[in-house]
């Protein structure tokens, strides 16, 4: 079957306001003087879609945005980058977040999940894009779970990023168990990392689970593996200034290798390089690694 899109990214466009702070533990003060506060077109789907596009994949992105200045920024950015983006306008507006970033590049994010729980993407809107895709990446918007049935019926493989899931929150569970490839952060798992990765494989349909642990590297467990395998992080191309978007860059680089038939170990190495690359630039998704910068 001929596909128009190598990857369809579903949901996850927004605008980040980045605030540089001296420390993530802020003083109890009326005001704190910081560096320049800037807005960036961002959020997880944005990072995966633009990251895959920069690597040469035919990327398609669909989402809701608002009829507001943030929505205009998104549309302007995608026109500049040449990203194929189709959207619906919702009166709740464009999603936003405020991210505090310390001098070591660590962040604390305040996410604005403004879309109402009853929001659904019409089937007549998304189905033609899904049918034209070889692979889909679902952001964990509550309405995106409604697309799984059609994806499975069409034979479209699905990946997702659960971010800092604790292994229990019910919101993430459909995404964890109905995706073919699952990414997540170790941030909220602690000693339960291996158990949660095994649960996703035992109870769901995933072929592989990837747990990202920042500077400590990442872990891969495939179906049939007894234990996760550890992969070290890659050295960044310069000083670490901002970890915003590192996970999305990891996912994009992993998917680039995975969708081109590379093995899981090669995909993990590419993901580590992509994630490290993102940490050396300010902003959430301002610089993207190219295929020439990945091994093989």
Give an account of the 3D structure.
The chain has 296 residues and is α/β, with parallel strands linked by helices. The protein has 8 helices and 13 strands. It has helices at residues 44-54, 69-81, 123-131, 148-154, 170-178, 193-203, 246-259, 264-278, and strands at residues 5-10, 14-20, 38-42, 59-65, 84-89, 96-101, 107-112, 133-138, 157-161, 181-185, 208-212, 218-222, 229-231. The strands form 2 sheets. It has a 9-stranded mixed sheet with strand order 5-4-1-8-9-10-11-12-13, with helices on both faces. It has a 4-stranded mixed sheet with strand order 3-2-6-7. α1 crosses α7 (246-259) and α7 runs antiparallel to α8 (264-278). The longest helix has 15 residues, at 264-278. The chain is globular and about 55 Å long. The mean pLDDT is 94.
Mean of residue pLDDT values? 94
Order of helices and strands: EEEHEHEEEHEHEHEHEEEHH
Percent range for helical residues?
A: 25-40%
Total strand segments: 13
Give the count of helical stretches.
Answer: 8
Quick structural gist:
This protein has 296 residues and is an alpha/beta fold. It is built from 8 helices and 13 strands. Helix 6 links the parallel strand 10 and strand 11.
Q: How are the SSEs ordered, and which strands pair?
A:
Layout: E1 5-10, E2 14-20, E3 38-42, H1 44-54, E4 59-65, H2 69-81, E5 84-89, E6 96-101, E7 107-112, H3 123-131, E8 133-138, H4 148-154, E9 157-161, H5 170-178, E10 181-185, H6 193-203, E11 208-212, E12 218-222, E13 229-231, H7 246-259, H8 264-278
Parallel strand pairs: 1-4, 1-8, 2-6, 4-5, 8-9, 9-10, 10-11
Antiparallel strand pairs: 2-3, 6-7, 11-12, 12-13
Helix pairs in contact: 1-7, 7-8
């Amino acid at each position: 079957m001929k596909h128009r899109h190598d990857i369809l990214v579903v949901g996850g466009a927004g605008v980040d306001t980045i605030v540089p702070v001296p420390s993530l533990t802020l003083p109890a003060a009326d005001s704190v003087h910081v560096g320049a506060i800037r807005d960036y077109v961002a959020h997880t789907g944005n990072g995966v879609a633009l990251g895959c596009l920069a690597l040469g994949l035919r990327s398609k992105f669909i989402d809701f945005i608002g009829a507001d200045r943030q929505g205009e920024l998104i549309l302007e950015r995608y026109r500049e980058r040449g990203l194929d983006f189709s959207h619906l306008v919702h009166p709740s507006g464009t999603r936003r977040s405020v991210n505090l970033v310390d001098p070591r590049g660590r962040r604390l994010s305040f996410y604005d999940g403004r879309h109402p729980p009853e929001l659904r993407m019409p089937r007549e809107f998304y189905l033609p894009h899904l049918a034209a895709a070889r692979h889909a990446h679902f952001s964990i918007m509550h309405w995106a779970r409604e697309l799984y049935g059609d994806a499975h019926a069409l034979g479209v493989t699905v990946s997702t990023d659960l971010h800092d899931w604790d292994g229990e929150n019910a919101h993430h569970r459909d995404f964890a168990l109905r995706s073919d490839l699952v990414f997540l952060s170790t941030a909220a798992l602690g000693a339960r990392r291996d158990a949660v990765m095994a649960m996703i494989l035992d109870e769901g349909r995933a072929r592989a689970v990837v747990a990202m642990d920042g500077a400590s590297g990442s872990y891969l467990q495939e179906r049939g593996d007894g234990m996760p395998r550890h992969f070290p992080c890659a050295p960044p191309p310069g000083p670490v200034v901002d970890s915003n978007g590192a996970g999305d860059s990891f996912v994009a680089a992993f998917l680039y290798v995975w969708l081109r038939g590379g093995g899981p170990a090669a995909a993990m190495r590419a993901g580590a390089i992509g994630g490290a690359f993102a940490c050396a630039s300010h902003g959430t998704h301002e610089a993207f690694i190219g295929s020439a910068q990945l091994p093989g």
